[in-house]
Each structure stands twice: as structure tokens, then as C-alpha cells.
Amino acid sequence: MHSLTRLLSHSHAFSCLVVSGAALVAAATAHANLLTNPGYEVSTITTANNVLNNFIGFQGVWGPELGTITGATGGVTPFAGSQMHSLTNAGGVATQTFQAVDVSSFSALINAGNAQIAASAFFNTVGGYTGAQSSVVVLFFSGATYSSLLGNSGFGGLNLDANPLTWENRSVTSMIPVNTTWVVFQGAYSNASIGNNPGFIDDAFMDITAVPAPGALALLGLAGIVGRRRR
Ligand SMILES: [Ca+2]
Ligand SMILES: [Ca+2]
Ligand SMILES: [Ca+2]
User: What does pTM read for this prediction?
Assistant: First the structure.
């Protein structure tokens, strides 16, 4: 159970330094991707255990249970760029990859109860079999340790097609629990659904946006009713 939720990241701080000017601009926009190496174009990875046991030390680095970063293989071409993440059967229920992200810069929004997180990725498998099942989940933590787990975004299985030429998107959105300071992005395949075949992930995305407080939502609902009456 514990290993289901761990994350990673090393190159994060470095890449932020390199693009500090652009990053500042991007951070101010509504849809800046909070993930590092979201398209797997950098080959550096660590392990799921490293990420989940050391958020700070491995933040921004992908940590699979059993996986690699690879170019085109098995008739599958990356969704974008020249590389993608490959996950293979790790035993147990699922084979997963994790990335830990410090979201403490969003604390004001999060602690006001107005922060929504959206996470998504594209999934694909080699051809010839059906029923491969994948999902995206976000885990919420009040601190930089796995033991501070507050909950998760929920998830649903995405049943993939049997066509290696198509990539399918899986996404989740969730309000972020108050007191969250770290999140872990988790991409997963059901082991039973892929057997001994690889499951691929590319173009992962995660962002935080402000949503109206409940009172404001109620007002919007009233406006909608008024609008309908007018018609
Ligand atoms: Ca890619
Ligand atoms: Ca596993
Ligand atoms: Ca496909």
C-alpha cells in the first residue's frame, strides 16, 4: 500500500535556475505545468521508493516501480518529442510512476479552500490485446513525508484501445485539501491488464487553478437560473 503512493525529483531545481526568467512568467499563468520533465525528453529517472521516501531529495524526478524512458519501440511512437515513459509489470495490483511536487507556494489559495488541481497524461500500449487499464491520481500531503498523507484526488480506470497508433488521455480534477504542501503525481497501469507487455505514458500535465468559493458558486448558479428564465 505504501509503495503505491511514492514520488521523485532531482533535476527540478536545476532546470528552474536555467530558465528562471521564463519560469517566473509561466508561474503567473493559469496553466503552467507543475511537473518537471513532463514529456520524458530527459532520460533521468529514479525509483518509486526514492521518491516516496524522500520528497525533497527527489522532487521533480520520475520514479517508476519498474520502468524506463525510451524512444519508439514495439510499434509505439512517443505522443510528442522523441521519448516516452515505459512501465512494466511490477507485481501486485499496479505498476506505477511517481513525481513529488512542492506546492507550498500555493498555500494561501489552498488554505482558503479555493485551489483545484488538474492532472492528466496520455497512455498507449503495444498492439494486439485489449483491456489495458491506466489511471492518473494525485496524492495530497501536509508535509514532505509520505506519512503526512491527507488523501487523494480519486481516479478511474481508462480502458485503452488495442491500437498502438493511438494515444488516449486520462485526467482527474480535485479540490486540494487544506494544509496540503506537497502533492505526488501518480501514473499507473493495472498489472493484470497489461500482462507482460509495456504500458507507455507521455505528456503528463498538472496544474493548480483558483476556483470560486462556495458562496460565489451559489451566486453563479442563481445567475444561471435567471439566464434560463430569460430564454
Ligand atoms: Ca515525449
Ligand atoms: Ca506494483
Ligand atoms: Ca492505443
Answer: 0.80
